[in-house]
Amino acid sequence: MAASASPPPDDEQPRLGLRERKKLKTRVAIREATYRLIAEQGYEATTVEQIAAAAEVSPSTVFRYFPTKEDIVLTDEFDPVMEAEIRARPADEPPLESVRAVLRHAVETILVDDPEEFAQRSKLMLEIPAVRARMTETMAETSLMLSRAVASRTGRQESDLEVLVFTASVLAALREVTIYWAGHGQKDDLAVLIDRALDSLKGGLAL
Description:
- By secondary structure, the protein is an all-alpha fold.
- The protein is built from 10 helices and no strands.
- The chain folds into 2 domains: about 10-70, Orthogonal Bundle (Arc Repressor Mutant, subunit A), CATH 1.10.10; about 75-205, Tetracycline Repressor, domain 2.
- Helix 5 packs parallel to helix 8.
C-alpha cells in the first residue's frame, strides 16, 4: 500500500522465530539498498543486480522476496498490522471511521519513523509509470485484507458487493491522496488530506 500502518509497540508484537527474523532482516536490507541506490542514480538506472550487490544477497534472492523491482519500492510489512488494528476498533464505530482512525495513525507514525523513505516512495509513485501501475495491481491484495476486516466488523461476507466497493473506494482514495501529496510538493498535512478524501466518500461531491 501507498501508506502503511505502523507496527505495534515491541511488547505487543508477536515473537518471531529465527527463520522469520532472518527473512525480515533480508527484506529490509534489500529495500534500504534499493532506496539508497535510487536516491544516488535514479530509478531507471538502478538494476536488480546492483540492488543485490548492495544488499549482499544474490539476484535470485531479491526476486524470491520481491517479484519485480517495483515491488521492492511498494511492499512493506504492515498490511497484517492494519487489518488487526481495524478489527480492534470499537464494535459500534462505523467502518469508515475505523478506517479513518487507522489510516491517520499510520500516516502520522510513518512520517515520524520513516519520513524520507515515505517521501521517496510517494515521489516514485508520481513520477514512474511502472511503479504507479504496479501499485494499482497490488492494491487488489490489500483490498482482500481490508475486506476481511470490514466484513468481520459488519457481519457481512468479504465477497459482498458492498464490502468490495467500500474497500476498493478507500484504497483508491488513499492512492489519490498519496499522488496528490507528492504532486504538490509534499507540503500538505497528509492526515488532513485523508480526512478530505474519506469525507468525499461519506458525503459525496457537493455542488
